[in-house]
Amino acid sequence: MKSIIxxxxxxxxxxxxxxxxxxxxxxxxxxxxxxxxxxYVQGPAILKVFQGIENSxxxxxxxxxxxxxxxxxxxxxxxxxxxxxxAIEGFGQGYGGSIGVISGFDIKxxxxxxxxxxxxxxxxxxxxxxANDPFTKMFVGKALPVTLKKxxxxxxxxxxxxxxxxxxxxxxxxxxxxxxxLKAQIIKTWKDGDNNxxxxxxxxxxxx
Amino acid sequence: xxxxxxxxxGLWNELPPFRLLLxxxxxxxxxxxxxxxxxxxxxxxxxxxxxNIIVSLVRDIIPKKVRIACFVTISATLVVAVExxxxxxxxxxxxxxxxxxxxxxxxxxILGRAEAFAAKNPVYLAVADGLGMGIGFxxxxxxxxxxxxxxxxxxxxxxxxxxxYYQPFTMMIEAPGAFICLGCILGFMNYLNRIQSRRKGxxxxxxxxxxxxxxxxxxxxxxxxxx
Lengths: 208, 227
Prior knowledge:
- Chain A is α+β, with helices and mostly antiparallel strands.
- Helix content of chain A is 44%, strand content 20%.
- Chain B is globular.
- The interface between A and B is medium-sized, with 20 and 22 residues.
């Protein structure tokens, strides 16, 4: 009996120390990890989505609060000193965890500009195919909401990776709902108002 | 049992991937370039050293029956820590190594050294063992990675080593290249050993992985008839 208590005690103690240690580390690395993600994951995806823009969506990003209290980063894209679109990251449940997708929205006609996959843990060679051009190209110019062909939509699921494709579509849908919820605020922040400090900065940069 | 002896055994006599043939999964999979090999090696070195130290420190309070669970908890914690640190400071490397970083938990070197060495020896010897094995592993991975990168891509740590006329032998940075390189290295190391023992006037090793020591020092054991 004593040895059993001893075993349970030692294991619990070890796990408790490990848990607290990791929680502390996780808290302290959250900020650097976010910055690294912006530089190496979301940055390239956003630049792929919006080609030929003149600002840096990463540097100009702004955090917005949703109704449920969550905050999301929104990345604006400017062309000729005008807001042409915003990129929003959404997540959808895939085969191996959630899939992160950057969706670019055209601010004029509320359609998708393009999408780029940021994070995923899909099966290499099967699910990861959703990051390639043939799949992501299908989203170009589509109006919201997008759905898979089997649900009556226009997106062809990658064969052998229906769940991954569904995950990507869900992620786009999530970004779409965020876009719809925040559209008024987005336009207010980046488009309207001549005395908007941020816009003046953009104009100045364009002139230079 | 000296610090020096425990340290150096991991560098040649018990070199993990090439002499003990332990931890071959990352050895074959991530050594596409010297940089990846080095990064993976350093991650393993870090985990191995710390897990050896911690296991050695708590070796007297861990009940024998749950020791494996304790060792796995310790190494898993360290691996998650490495994963977080890698994501925070060397993200491109993390992207390259991918799934192989979490898999360090089940790398047999970590558990093997904890069970076979750190759980039975004082901390300073465990440090020597972890450092030696870890550095041996890192050097082996970097060596294999450089070899494959130089032949397969014509670069070394990303710097071109041949002129523009060099046609990269791409197969070497794919999976078959790893097996070919590993086989050649193992053959070469056995050849070196044979020369070494012949020079000392000893009979050649028949199976150096069984004891990993020179036959003259071997007092014979239950494993002897395996060779």
